[in-house]
């Protein structure tokens, strides 16, 4: 599978080598538990180009966050371990770097926005100081002038993410800011080192709907200005539809479908994606058949005891009683173009 | 304008007064606490000797004043030392988890099973009765208290996103412990320190009472209390006065601790 995937990606005409700012190859991350070793992410491959937004969708435990944590080097070890693969940012393989170079590289190359802005800022430090910390982290012994420069840069960054009265806000503590403002601060912090990749793990889940829209607009604006590649991890299909260029659907630690947002959401080629879309509210007329929300029956498989074949097979409506799904692990293949791939043995039969 | 917290004010005043007495005993008495006058032993209170004299004819009031020094120095410095060692140990255990945590917390648990006074007794009996040894004996007893108390919050804060994002930015463990975790524990630890000072003062008095405090003729509250017990029936003031001093000092630190807790807790600060 590896060879096929790599050659496919390299052959893509619209992907010049310098443009792929993040490329993940054969990433497998496992956790050792009392009941055995669990693969949280298995053989994940994807690319993120500069200025592009990639949406990662899937239910809890599907490996979305573990993928992000692996890229950021935040997998706690033990019990976790990235057992194989390559994570390249601008050509540097983050997994091959020693700790020190990794610290120098991450932070300036990959930044992260967390889910809950209520808990993601340190309550005892002023906003400005927290943003400045990231800027100063890469200087060995910052001088007074460096600190002053970092402080001014923090204020500029606050202004750039649309925080009113940034001078005053920089001197305030997190509890003095609303949730939306705090998420803006998080974005300012993340952008403080001009990262090439920004990982946003459900950045709007903890915010109400109007603020969600503002934050997503802000992320797009920041992206336009800095050409950062954004990895948007979310449960929210609506958010994906509006904000994302390409989508990757994960299930039980594997990528099951990947493609442009129009293709994946408009013409899904994996039964799991179809199931996800069926349980997303739509604005179709009330009498429309598609208006009904149909849940996917069953539960995601136990990660300590994954079925040998397709992980989704036990819940799949398309499978019928075909043996192949239970025995043979399906691999991502064109459906029907390279821009849209699905890991289903019978993807030709999938209908939205 | 915030209303002043009465606990904080009363506790603060008591402690401020005791500190003043400890620092400048000559402001409060002109008598020499060690000068003996056997002819005048157990003399009742008079204009010159406000609380009377002890079994060697020494001025009880002067000994009370000079005893403050011993209690405060040993009480406060052992708390500060105990905190300076215990809190980092607890934070390291909570932050690094794994084997480090198991070993540290196992030692802490073993230590917690020992009564502080008994351990201090053993230590002083083995190494001798100097200010430093007594302080060290008490410090060993309270390190686990601070380690245990710092461990829990450190465990919780290590999972917080601001710690993760600091890691992503390239921060190392000492920086994270010092800049992100310690400031979040600080106010709680200050409160605990004040409460613990009440305990260390009692331990020091206990050691002196048992004859393992600073050796005579140094005036200590615990030593005076012991001397006084012999004359409890005839001269109750002799032992009552140092007992009261220990009580007031412990009360002062407890009130100060309670007051600080209310003042530093944002939920109760304005109520």
UniProtKB/TrEMBL annotation, chain A:
Q: Which InterPro entries match?
A: AAA+_ATPase, ABC_Ni/Peptide_Import, ABC_transporter-like_ATP-bd, ABC_transporter-like_CS, Oligopep_ABC_C, P-loop_NTPase
Q: Which CDD domains match?
A: ABC_NikE_OppD_transporters
Q: Any idea where the ABC transporter domain is? A: 22-277
User: Coiled coil located at which positions?
Assistant: none
Which parts pass through the membrane? none
> GO molecular function, one example?
ATP hydrolysis activity
State a GO cellular component annotated for this protein.
plasma membrane
Sorted UniProt keywords: ATP-binding, Cell membrane, Membrane, Nucleotide-binding, Transport
Primary localization class, coarse? membrane
Q: Does the keyword Cell cycle apply?
A: no
Q: Which Gene3D superfamilies match?
A: P-loop containing nucleotide triphosphate hydrolases
Name its GO BP terms in alphabetical order.
peptide transport
What is this entry's stated membrane topology?
Peripheral membrane protein
UniProt xrefs under PROSITE patterns: ABC_TRANSPORTER_1 (PS00211), ABC_TRANSPORTER_2 (PS50893)
State where the protein is found. Answer: Cell membrane
Similarity comment: Belongs to the ABC transporter superfamily.
PANTHER family (UniProt xref): DIPEPTIDE TRANSPORT ATP-BINDING PROTEIN DPPD, OLIGOPEPTIDE TRANSPORT ATP-BINDING PROTEIN APPD
> Which protein are we looking at?
ABC transporter ATP-binding protein
What species was this sequence derived from? Streptosporangium carneum
Classification from the root reads: Bacteria, Bacillati, Actinomycetota, Actinomycetes, Streptosporangiales
